[in-house]
Amino acid sequence: MGQIxxxxxxxxxxxxxxxxxxxxxxxxxxxxxxxxxxDTTFASRVQxxxxxxxxxxxxxxxSREQAPxxxxxxxxxxxxxxxxxxxxxRNAINIGLPVxxxxxxxxxxxxxxxxxxxxxxxTATVNGVTYTCTKLNPYMQDILNQGGLLASxxxxxx
Length: 158
Description:
Helix content: 25-40%
Structural class: alpha/beta
Largest sheet: 7 strands, mixed
Number of strands: 7
Number of helices: 7
Strand content: 15-25%
Order of helices and strands: EHHHEHEHEEEEHH
């Protein structure tokens, strides 16, 4: 179980991590500024195992890999949204952050509620109600299980 942090439609990568923080040399230094323009307390309140839930087109904007990376570094277990910008979706899978499409969830949950997500079943449960989500195919699930695309490719070469 993890807490929901709910965000709106069209959250862009600059709202996830603003461009001025890209000057920091590491994601560890950037992560305390995640969602700073939308919720100044997000980075201090989010705990490992919590979830970001959003409406449509999450992660639109630039192709910066740091956007999903700061969420993963903060311990966000997954981002669940009605839809994702394609480049954010790919970057998230590449670094090992689960991104799950769940069309109905957003309209029925509130910020701060507890959620349980089953990647293997493709379900999210909040307040005793189970929502059907898009289930990742086995290949993508395997990439996530290994910590991302680079980790997966490195294991294949070994």
